[in-house]
Amino acid sequence: MTGPAYAEVERTTANNGQLVMEDVPPIPEQIARDLRRYQNVRSASFLAWTPTADGLYVSTRFGDVAQVHKVSAPGGARTQLTFFDEPVRSVQSRPGDSALSFTMDTGGNENTQIYLLEPGSGEEAKLLTDGEALNGSAVWDQAGERIAYRSTRRNGASNDIWIMDVDKPDEAKMVFASPDGTYWYPIDFSADGRFLLFANLVGNADSRIHLLDLASGEHQMLAGDPKNPSSNAGVGFDETGQGFWYTTDMAGDFRQLAWQSLEVGDEPMFITADIPWHVDGVRLSEDRGRIAFAVNENGFSQLYLLDSAKKRYKAVKNLPVGVLISMGFSPDNKQLALTLNTPNTPSDTFVLELGRKATSYGDLTRWTFSEVGGLDTAGFIEPELISYPTFDSGKGGPDAIPAWLYKPKGEGPFPVIISIHGGPEAQARPYFSSTYQLWLETLGAAVLVPNVRGSNGYGKAYMGMDNGFKREDSVRDIGALLDWIATQEDLDTERVAVFGGSYGGYMVLASAVHYSDRLKAAVDIVGISNFVTFLENTKDYRRDHRRAEYGDERDPDMRAHLQAISPLNSVEKIQVPMFVVQGENDPRVPVSEAVQIVAALRDQGQPVWYMNALNEGHGYRKKENRDIYQQATVLFFQQFLLRN
Fold first, then answer.
1. Alpha helices by DSSP H, 404-470
2. In the chain, is it the N or the C terminus that has fewer CB atoms within a 10 Å radius of its CB?
3. Where are any strands of DSSP class E within 84-205?
4. Tens digits of per-residue pLDDT, 277-330?
5. What percent of the residues of the chain are helix, what percent strand, and what percent coil, each to the nearest 5?
6. Residues 6+ apart with CB under 8 A from 344
7. Which of 282, 320, 322, 285 is nearest to 304 (CA)?
8. b/e map of 304-329 (b: 16 or more CB within 10 Å)?
9. Where are the alpha helices (DSSP H) in 333-463?
10. R_g of the chain, CA atoms, integer Å
């Protein structure tokens, strides 16, 4: 950026120069003190079992980023096993062995590499992949000898399927070349290692499951239809090897658990047709005799156990009310580990004892007790599920828009922060959020978290209501929320801010374009400011997938539409103070999206704070950066939202 406006910017840095701030005032020590306890909340998410089921591996943070730890007993100490400067992700146990595979990138660039670690050996983790391309979605064969994974190694753009003998990583070979720019990834090996289930994610409403014969190289599509798109996500081969499990919405509005024979042309059996909600998490036991699956019931999780042979299931009744994040069966099939999150507890790991019958179970035991900075989380504000009519309710649009409302203690009217999720197909759920709680406590602000049209969890019709030329209808749902706020006596319609990241960042910018006269402040985190430049500059391996959601900028009519709805092209309508937060290495929403909106706002004299972390990507994962960003956000709201 050049020019007089940019030359007058006041720049400061923090964290050894890795965090660059422009026009962000010094953060008062009082804010740092007020937030310190909230910023020291931890979690402990289940990753994998030890091979003898005598312990668990969890992801938790005791330094700056999350690492792998081992827990050997309920409430036991967490023994750290990895010590990297970057967070460790996607951990998998090697079948029949103590080794772990995991992925890790550098500086948030998402060029993940696959590593092999022998816990307790004293040896460093071994790099298995090329060190340059994006390599991920690793799946072990049942013998524990090979992994299948996706890689952009061939040309940097295509997600191809590769297989590697982990003892001979230099001999890795590509077994399937992507014929297009869409997203391909492996699902599961057959028991004899000859066949591989793999999937093609064309778009969030169009995904297909394929079978690859590794001996002949022949492949065929088992589920999905290009002419009648549906969402199909593979789980794995069944216990007989003659069929496979997957989730699909081909038979209705919600994703159901289904079983299907491997014979081409056979029809699927829809197992959960009587459950009117999404099945959003499925795990097979090691012997494939039972399945655990979760159902998203209006944001809350309900766990079920299923007998895979009889194809009958039963609800698990003794879980805390909240959201199930991850799960996995023990190698001996006698226990099920769960990561549970509630409005009053961060993500922690629990173990459910399983009975001899596939659908029977016993006690639930909490294994980890994550630190919460000395806070009394029992006193945290729990959200209320509300709904409000929108501009086209009763006219072909949604009957209502669901939202979570967190309201401070005391009497209003309270200032309001509207927090908009990304995706756009994500879903706001009643997660534990130390961020929302610190806003409630330190700012006295109510927090509204809407699931505007396009959100996941409410059926494929609702999720498709914002696609293509209907993009701004979701922005109009925020306008309807502002109307609803005006009807609430305990909410202050004169003091409302919008906050969001990624696609939620676009929603923040678009809301500022359309509703600046009804807003006091806006925080845009890694947001899209121009859909055309975003699609042209996002990483090659993501581009076609994003075109399926937002539209193809190469089509003249769609390009004109995308330009028309891009906030950058209506920046003169933004008349609200803006805080823009970005990561320099973001492969999804490039830093250029932030740079151009900041420059345009400055050119028209609009107040704008800008923060860019040089060692981060799509969102901040390093605690030292995240702490300052959260403190600056509170200061921004104090200066621009709370003032009358």
1. 434-438, 460-463
2. C
3. 89-93, 100-104, 113-117, 126-127, 135-140, 146-151, 160-165, 173-176, 183-189, 195-203
4. 999 899 999 999 999 999 999 999 999 999 999 999 999 998 999 999 999 999
5. 20, 35, 45
6. 377, 378, 380, 382, 432
7. 282
8. bbbbbeeeebeebeebbebbbbbbbb
9. 434-438, 460-463
10. 24
Q: Where do the domains of the chain lie, and which CATH numbers do they carry?
A: 4-39+375-640 (3.40.50.1820)
Structure tokens at 62: 């005791």
pLDDT digits (tens, 9 = 90+) for 145-182: 999 999 999 998 899 999 999 999 999 999 999 988 78
162-171 pLDDT, tens per residue? 999 999 999 9
pLDDT digits (tens, 9 = 90+) for 207-260: 999 999 999 999 999 999 999 999 999 999 999 999 999 999 999 999 999 999
DSSP state of 372: B
pTM of the model: 0.93
**What is the rounded distance in angstroms from the CA atom of residue 284 to the CA atom of residue 304?**
12
State how far the Cα of 87 lies from the Cα of 63, in Å rounded to an integer. 10
The two tokens of residue 478 are 């925020």
DSSP 526-545: S--S-HHHHHHHS-HHHHHH
Checking if the pLDDT of 200 tops 90, the result is: yes
What's the pLDDT tens digit per position in 588-636?
999 999 999 999 999 999 999 999 999 999 999 999 999 999 999 999 9
The C-alpha angle with vertex 333 and arms to 332 and 339, in degrees rounded to 5, equals 110
- C-alpha distances in Å from residue 486, one per residue of 45, 369, 475: 40, 41, 17
Please check whether residue 238 is in contact with residue 245, taking contact to mean a CB–CB distance below 8 angstroms.
yes
- Indicate the SS3 state at residue 32: helix
